[in-house]
Specification:
The complex is a heterodimer of chains A (about 260) and B (about 160). With about 260 residues, chain A is α+β, with helices and mostly antiparallel strands. Chain A folds into 2 domains: about 160 residues, Uridine Diphospho-n-acetylenolpyruvylglucosamine Reductase, domain 3 (2-Layer Sandwich), CATH 3.30.465; about 100 residues, CO dehydrogenase flavoprotein, C-terminal domain (Enolase-like, domain 1). Helices cover about 30% and strands about 20% of the residues of chain A. Chain A has 11 helices and 12 strands. In chain A, strands 4-5-8-6-7 form a 5-stranded antiparallel β-sheet. In chain A, strands 9-10-11-12 form a 4-stranded antiparallel β-sheet, with helices on both faces. In chain A, strands 1-3-2 form a 3-stranded parallel β-sheet, with helices on one face. In chain A, α3 packs antiparallel against α4. The longest helix of chain A is centred in the last third of the chain and has 18 residues. Chain A is globular, with a radius of gyration of 18 Å. Helices cover about 30% and strands about 15% of the residues of chain B. A 5-stranded mixed β-sheet of chain B has the order 2-1-5-3-4, with helices on both faces. Chain B is of the alpha+beta class. Chain B starts with a strand and ends in an 11-residue tail after the last helix. Chain B folds into 2 domains: about 80 residues, Ubiquitin-like (UB roll) (Roll), CATH 3.10.20.30; about 60 residues, DNA polymerase, domain 1. Classes of the chains: A alpha+beta (about 260), B alpha+beta (about 160). The interface between A and B is medium-sized, with 26 and 28 residues.
């Protein structure tokens, strides 16, 4: 990779200043470093977020939401929310492999918004709130297409706040070589309705399958999905690992599995 | 260039690095610890796995400068103080958990991380934990067997090569 200047601030304020001056944020680096090795990214300055204590750790706020610092690793999330939000713990505990989970962070995953990443489905499926250095963004507004988010230039994610559903589950059909989600579905049942978020399938990145949400809000059972058509294959990713129609079919299958397992 | 200090296998060490210098390059090129291997260089194969502050990481995907001050353990730090093989290393030898040996440093470091978290894993848990470590010789059976044996479980009945 090309060389760069490196800085590792210890506060959010210092990080925002360094990024505002043209730096590129680096969290766990499990995507960015390989990308830089391939020279697909060539930042002149990297601003590491790994030394910012106020961006690490997990707590529960007065509203009962689980608040996860953006620089918290997947392994820490998997361990810490095992009792308070098992579906989220399970999702975090199956990202990549153990070494990647010890380094990669929730904030990094969300800011990157890879169309096959797991975390965006949990955030959208839970109706979580993405907190940045300057504002709070609802999950429904945050994800704006493949590798695209509502983050402004120089804005960084500092925390993610998850409402805890009554029941939830994440089902991932892994692409056999990369182990990324070929299709992943996060289903969450709240008192006021069900949310179904799908990753891996659409060329637009994570999305809500609203027809299934309406049906499951009336009757939370896999049988409800039997009579439904799978979502349209239009816009679904089609590659050597699976056609768009196959992915669309999998969305329905994985949704049903998630409902059963929730 | 910046001076990065690390505690490697219990010894204080320092090296001059650029921003882009990977942890694995510091270990191999600057400190001469060539037991840690570079396999794929794309964070998939796990041959470069080391422990950073007690946690397994792929040292080809970590910038040395970003872990300045950390405690790093490599395969060179795994043997007992008297130089004899650790329990895990001895089990890999006993159960033929290696063939060409290229992946072995990463396998041993990942096994050590697993047994620290989960001292008596099931076969399924061992296999799941090895997801990020690729071996092209053994077919994994004897690696899994070695790790189960290192955890103190009876593997006499397990199929092996």
């Amino acid at each position: 990779m090309y060389n760069f200047d490196f800085t590792r601030p210890s506060t959010i304020k210092e990080a925002v200043a360094a990024i505002g001056a043209g730096g590129q944020a680096l969290s766990g680096g499990q995507t960015l470093i390989p990308t830089m090795k391939a020279r697909l990214a060539m930042p002149e300055t990297l601003v590491s977020l790994t030394g910012i204590q106020e961006m690490k750790g997990i707590c529960t706020n007065d509203a009962g939401q689980i608040c996860i610092g953006a620089a918290t690793t997947h392994a820490e999330v998997a361990h810490e929310v095992a009792k308070s939000y098992p579906a989220l713990s399970d999702l975090a505990g199956h990202i990549g492999d153990p070494a990647v989970r010890n380094r990669g962070t929730i904030g990094g995953s969300l800011a990157n918004n890879d169309p096959s990443a797991c975390y965006p489905s949990a955030v959208l499926g839970s109706g979580a709130i993405v907190k940045t250095n300057s504002r709070e963004i609802a999950a429904d507004d945050f994800f704006q297409g493949m590798f695209t988010t509502a983050l402004e230039e120089g804005e960084i994610i500092t925390e993610v706040k998850f409402p805890v559903p009554q029941k939830a589950n994440y089902q991932k059909f892994v692409q056999p070589a990369s182990r990324f989600a070929l299709v992943g579905v996060f289903v969450a049942k709240f008192a006021d309705g069900v949310r179904v978020a799908v990753t891996g399938a659409s060329g637009e990145g994570v999305f809500r399958w609203t027809e299934a949400e309406v049906a499951l809000s009336k009757d939370f059972s896999a049988a409800t999905l039997d009579g439904m058509a799978a979502p349209s294959a239009d816009g679904m990713i089609s590659d050597l690992h699976g056609t768009g129609a196959y992915r669309a079919h999998l969305v329905k299958v994985m949704t049903a599995r998630a409902v059963v397992a929730a | 260039m910046t001076t990065v200090k690390l505690s490697v296998n219990g010894k204080e060490m320092s090296a001059e690095v650029e921003g882009r210098t990977l942890l694995v390059d510091v270990l191999r090129e600057k400190l001469g610890l060539t037991g840690t291997h570079v396999g794929c260089d794309t964070s998939q194969c796990g041959a470069c796995t080391v422990h950073v502050d007690g946690k397994s990481m792929k040292s080809c995907s970590v910038l040395a400068i970003d872990v300045a001050g950390a405690e790093v353990t490599t395969i060179e730090g795994m043997a007992n103080p008297d130089g004899s093989l650790s329990v895990i290393q001895a089990a890999f030898k006993e159960h033929h958990g290696l063939q060409c040996g290229f992946c072995t440093p990463g396998m041993v470091m990942t096994a050590a991380a697993l047994l620290k978290e989960n001292p008596v894993p099931t076969e399924g848990e061992v296999r799941a934990y090895l997801e990020g470590n690729i071996c092209r010789c053994t077919g994994y059976h004897n690696i899994v067997k070695a790790i189960l044996a290192a955890s103190g479980q009876d593997v006499a009945a397990m199929a092996g090569e």
